[in-house]
Every structure is written in structure tokens, then in C-alpha cells.
Amino acid sequence: MIQSWRLEGSSGTAIxxxxxxxxxxxxxxxxxxxxxxxxxxxxxNPPLAEQRPHEVVIxxxxxxxxxxxxxxxxxxxxxxxxxxxxxxxxxxxxPTEAFQASLYKELLGRxxxxxxxxxxxxxxxxxxxxxVKGKSYPIQVRRKGSLRSKEEILxxxxxxxxxxxxxxxxxxxxSPNGRMxxxxxxxxxFREYQLFIKDLKxxxxxxxxxxxxxxxxxxxxxxxxxxVTEDAAKRWNKVWRxxxxxxxxxxxxxxxxxxxxxxxxxxxxxxxxLQSSSMETSEVRVLDLAVSTSKPRLMIARSGKHKYxxxxxxxxxxxxxxxxxxxxxLVSTPVNALAKSNWKEVVPHRTTVMLEAIxxxxxxxxxxxxxxxxxxxxxxxxxxxxxxxxxxxEKARMISVGANPDYATSKFRYEYGSLKTPTSTYEFxxxxxxxxxxxxxxxxxxxxxxxxxxxxLWATARDGVKVPISLVYRKGLKHSKNTPLLxxxxxxxxxxxxxxxxxxxxxxxxxxxxxxxxxxxxxxxxGTPWHDNGxxxxxxxxxxxxxxxxxxLVKSGxxxxxxxxxxGGSAGGLLIGAxxxxxxxLAFQAIADVPFVDVINTMLDDTxxxxxxxxxxxxxPNVEEEYKWIRAYSPYDNITAQAYPNLLVNTSLNDSQVxxxxxxxxxxxxxxxxxxxxxxxLKTNMDAGxxxxxxxxxxxxxxxxxxxxxxxxxxxxx
Length: 718
Known about the structure:
Elements: H1 14-37, E1 55-58, E2 61-64, H2 76-93, H3 97-109, E3 115-116, E4 120-122, E5 125-131, E6 139-144, E7 152-156, H4 157-160, E8 168-174, E9 180-186, E10 194-199, E11 204-205, E12 215-218, E13 224-230, E14 236-243, E15 249-253, E16 260-265, E17 271-277, E18 282-288, E19 297-300, E20 308-313, E21 316-321, E22 329-334, E23 344-347, E24 353-360, E25 364-371, E26 374-381, E27 386-389, E28 398-401, E29 412-417, E30 424-429, E31 434-440, E32 452-460, E33 466-474, E34 485-488, H5 506-509, E35 514-518, H6 528-532, H7 540-555, E36 564-569, H8 571-582, E37 589-593, H9 599-604, H10 615-618, H11 624-631, E38 646-652, H12 661-673, E39 680-685, H13 696-713
Parallel strand pairs: 34-35, 34-36, 36-37, 37-38, 38-39
Antiparallel strand pairs: 1-2, 3-5, 4-5, 5-6, 6-7, 8-9, 9-10, 10-11, 12-13, 13-14, 14-15, 16-17, 17-18, 18-19, 20-21, 21-22, 22-23, 24-25, 25-26, 26-27, 28-29, 29-30, 30-31, 32-33, 33-35
Helix pairs in contact: 3-13, 7-8
């Protein structure tokens, strides 16, 4: 509302009266601009959440959390508040409904609805998935021996999901003899994956119900199944062995709450690796898959900040280890001689190259590396010892080893893509040092990569560090201060924000929007040290890097603060929340997806998912020094009475990674604190989890909604 004003009486001054009048005029002009240039927040009254006294005293400081009650999902007022916010959001977005429908039709028209993945040959079968027009979910199928043989359905979520608002497939594995299919299904969005076993000969699901499972793996006898379960805080912590017709037997439990547990097999299917990992340390046990009663054997005991992973080839274990440096090296050792004195170095540690992963085959070794901020693939002919790199046409790209289940193969699949190049699967022949395109992600509607430009800019952070920014835009665009630009960031967990292709994004590029990704610290673009410099005591670096990249783009004439939009999801939502508090004038609008914004309260509650394991990313607020790190940036705790940009917050009621109450509380507090008249929307998917809608058509509708928010506010209505 426009605030009432009055001229000062005799005790006032003419100057103060004039100032008040000027403020009123400025406010009126601003509000008129809001109504004409962007979504109007005053079409309905926004919900004002009830405030209930709730205080926590920690390290001598009192933290007030008047919206803590929203954490109780069973409280009818919690659900009602979320519904009220959805109603308000719908009212504000009503003028865009026709535009949303048009965008949805456009996005759908770019997708090949009837499509088939490249089949992969694995132990006698061609396995692949396909999509069918009108059906929301992919169908997993296989053919025995030849692609001309009869198609056999493994899993059809369209059938299993009938009448369910959400369904998602988790882990799956086919037994070595091809008869048994173990798979997991979640129908809540809360990662409640239930384990099922299907007899592929009878086409029936077996009667046993083994409960929730996160990973599954068959033993060599096709009768023994290994699976991983979680504790009450959703920490993967136990591995079980189940022989068909018997009872599950727990074979290992990870009791340290800083650690997560996972399993994986060697490509030759000889060994099962049981890995316990914290964010700083790891420990691996190995189990012989040929012996159904074998016990896990410890490889290297956990110590300090030693992280390692293991694979197997021809009687030797290959160990990727950071014992000599944070960017890892590769060594090998005989399977029965694990002592460090037996290690043979295969790839040394390099300060400028990150060794991210290895892929072992009978005759070749592939290295997934990072150099200069981006991915690359190198390979070695293990017979000749000759090394080479797979060439790529673009610097800012994504490249990774693809699906290659055949241990003895002599030709290898890899995936390639960029901001303008659709994800493509190539077959690489080392003998000829040549790549053959097998399939490129179809983009209908006349898309041509040559119609777009992609480049890398370098911004200088306030402490002198150079930070790359990847951009893509329509060719011929003359960027200026009037150019709308979307800046999307992440900056946590050592996860690189790679320049990925998006079919949907084309709709923004074709409307003159520039899309940019700042490769800020906290990610893994330049190896582990890049992550080290963006976590714990240095967690402020990703936020200031993002701000400095945005300012650089403005100063370089790519956009202006009045035309800039920013976006991030999950930990990237934390990034957006922190940046909005630090620099509310940075952008004109923002989208925060499932944002991790209530950092102190969440990290104080070790019963919540992810909390304890992430003490080594954010810090433990029970430790005073670490509490101070978090207190300095936690978005919910640093909201102040200032003007914030237009903001759309997306969340899901059944999110198990960032619980719904974090964004709900954040929005509620912003509503009663911020001083502006800009749009503030909270949109909650009442049926989904962390990734939003599970069906592809519903997911496109969510994208259309987000794009309509951005474009409408930019004044782009077609």
C-alpha cells in the first residue's frame, strides 16, 4: 500500500515537508512502474503467517524463530499456509496463464515424444529405455541377443504410477543370468524407495518385501542380492546380503554419523566395493562376488583427510588416492598385496589437473579429468602404454565416459555437450583415434547449434582470483545494458556447475536472453582446492564470487542490474538467499529452487536428513567458531529491513533434502521484514520431492511457469 504522509506542523521545517513530498512522488512513480512493467503483487492480499514466540540461545546469542511451528508437517495450519501461498501465487501469476500455455506448447514442441535411448549390450541382452507420446515416464526394456528379437518390458512407471501423483525409479540391477530384476520405487517424493524383485521368466514380482533400499547389486550366483539401507536421518549406513528365499543378513554397518555408505562393482563383475565416505575421508572394503558367503575385507583404514576409491583389472586393484595431493593420483597394487610398499604409480598427482574418476577396461584405462576449469577425457592403451586425449571442438564443454558395461570392449562410448551443443553420444575407436556420432539429443523445431554463440569470460574476484563465466546467446545479439541476462550458480560440495545443454533454455535465448554460469569457488571446476576455498570458514567466497561475476557482466556491458536475473537450486538456493541479503540491488529478479536457507536451525537439528554428514561442508554450529561462520551468511537469519528484488521461491512438500519448511519460513519472514513492493511468491508442489514433478509433462509445466515469471517481469510477453 501507498503509505500516508502529512506535511510537518509548525515544529517541522519546509525542507522536511519537501523531502516527504518527494519521497511520496518517488514511491508513487515506482509503484506505477511495478504495475506496468512487471507482475502486480497487489492483485490479492499475500498470506501473513502467524508468529509464535520461539527462541534458542546458543553461544550467548538468542536466535528468534517465530515461524518454527511450520516444521510440524502434521499441523493443519502448516498445510493451510502453504495452500494460501499457492493461492496467492496463482492470483499474481494469473495474467501470465495464456503465456504459460504458449510456452508449454513451445517447450513440448521441441521434444521428440516418441524416442528410444541407444541400446547397450550387457551380458547377452540389449538394454535401453524408450518414451512414448502421451506417457509421462520412460519404459525400460531389453532384447535378447539381437535388436531384432522380441522386446521385453523390464519396468513401466506409466503402469505402476497410475492414480499416483508422484512416482520415481531408483536403483536397479539385473542378475548375471538375466532372470531376476531388482528395482526400487518411490511414490512419495521423500526418497522412500521400496525394493522389489521381479522374476523375468514368469513376469511376476516375487512376494518378498525387503523394505526401503537405496542401492542394489546382484552377486555372481544370481541368487544373492546386496542392498543398502538408511537410518532415521536418511543417512545410508547399512549393507545387507539377501539370498532368495532366505532372510536378509546385515554384513556391515557404518556407525560414524559423519560417514555415508555406498556399494559398487568392478566392471569385470568380480568384486563388490563397500565404501564409507565423509566429506574429508573414505574407507573401502572389498568382497568377492563369486563367493556368496565371503566377508568384506578392509583395504586401507580411514585416517586424517585421506580419500580414495578402488577398481579392479586383471588381478590388480587401481586406487585413486589423494595421499600425495588434493587433486589425486592413481596407483595399482596386486589384489593380495595391499601394503603401500607394493603400490605402483600409474598417474602422478598434478597441481593443475584434477583426476575425477577412472574407468578400467581389459585393454584400456580412461581418465576423467579437469584442466583449466573444464572436463577432459584421456585414455591409455595398457598394452603399449601410449596416452592420448579425446579432442573436443569447444573449450566450455561437458565430456564423460558413457555406458560401457562390456569389460572387454575395444570401442568406447562417451557423452559430449555444451551450452549450445545438445548432449551427444559418440563411439570412440582408439586404434583409429576417431569418434563416430551415434546419437544426439533430438531438439525439434529447427534448432541449429550454429545459430548460437558460446564463450568464456573471466571475472576478477575481490581477492584477485580469476573466475570463469560461461555464456550462451543467440548469434547476432548486440548485448547492452538493456539485455536481459540470467545468471545461474551453485558453488558447494565440490560439484562443478558445468556448461550443460537445455532444450527448454532455447526459449529464453530465442527471446534475446543471455544465459550465464559463473564457475565460482565451492564447486570443483579447478579441483579440490577450488572446493576447499569455498566451504567451512571460507564459505563466504562463493557468495562474493557470484556478486563479483554479476558486477563484471554489468560493467562489461552485457546487461544492467535492472535487467539481471539470478537463479540457484538447493545449495544454489542458499547462494541466492545469501546474495540477496548481501547485495539486494544486484539483480532485478531471482528464482530460488528448493533453497537451503535456514542453515543454523537445520544444522543444529541432527535428526534431520543430511545434517551431521554436512558438518564438514558448512561447519557444526555447536562449535562457537563454526557457528560464527554460518551466522554470517545464513539467509533466514540475515534478512533485514531493506528492499529485495522480485523473487519466486519453488519448493516441494515431500522434499527430503531441503525440507519444505525452510523456504516457507524464509518467505514468511521476508514478507514481514522487507521494505519494497516487489513480487514475492512461494510455490509449493504438494505431491513432489527435491526434483519437483516426476512426470516429464508436469515438469515442462513447471518450467513454463518459471519462464513466464522471468519473461513477464522483463516485459517480454510473447
